[in-house]
Design brief:
Distance between the termini: 40 Å
Largest sheet: 5 strands, antiparallel
Number of domains: 1
Strand order of the largest sheet: 2-1-9-8-7
Radius of gyration: 21 Å
Number of helices: 10
Order of helices and strands: HHEEEHEEHHHHEHHEEEH
Structural class: alpha+beta
CATH superfamily: DD-peptidase/beta-lactamase superfamily
CATH architecture: 3-Layer(aba) Sandwich
Length: 282
Amino acid sequence: MKIYLSLLLLTIYSVISFGQNAPRRIDALRITDYISRLPSAIKITMAVEGVSGEEFFSYRPTVRVPSASVIKIPILLELMEKVKVKQIDLEKIYTLQASDKAGGSGVIANMPEGKKFTIRELAQEMIRSSDNTATNILIRAVGMDAVNQNLMRLGSTKTRLNRIMMDTMAVKQGRENYVNTVEINDLLRKIYNKEVATPALCEEMIEILKNCGDTTTIPRNLPKDVVIAHKTGGLTYVRGDAAIIYTPKPFIVSIFVEGFKEETTAERIIGELAEICWENLK
């Protein structure tokens, strides 16, 4: 009886231990089945990874997609690299000029000429309201080439900043901004793990990304108390989001949708795919 009881306890302990240490997995069949039921015109590009580099799921991982405002993550990163080497001061004052004002998303274009902002405030607004005016000011401050050189240094071969925001002529000429889901996940992972700029500046970037005001995509179906550091993007032909999701073991997900007729359809798809990921990895 004692031997039997000891074996039973050992078995129970082993099961519990295995359950605690079992690797997390994504239900890939559930995701691919979901994608297969979408209209044929819709294209999904996504990657789901752990903050330590675990590869949970990817769909069209080698594809580059129009980035929309998700390209603002590399711009933010290059800004902080410039701050690190004291080429830019986040407390420096910038005075808004009429020529700075850009259309599309954001609030600064509606403010009066002569309005003063710190560089930090411009960076915060670039993410919070996806402000295009703030973004273009920062692109000029850090340099488009510098953003791309930093991307190359960090190993990105497909993610590129090729134009300022709302440059419709550049788009017509074929100069588009692009992102790759695996590469943007890698940038977020480097920020999370404090492998770029400085640890303090990485923390600041995370806090800025946590304040993204657009909750219609990855945060859409997740509990309101789940902390998410992310940046969304949207054009008439692409909707995307790239995020660090703070579960007990945080993970990183980027999802882009192309070929939709209505933006709300793309937002729903991103939200439902993110919900599946969260249910598996929470």
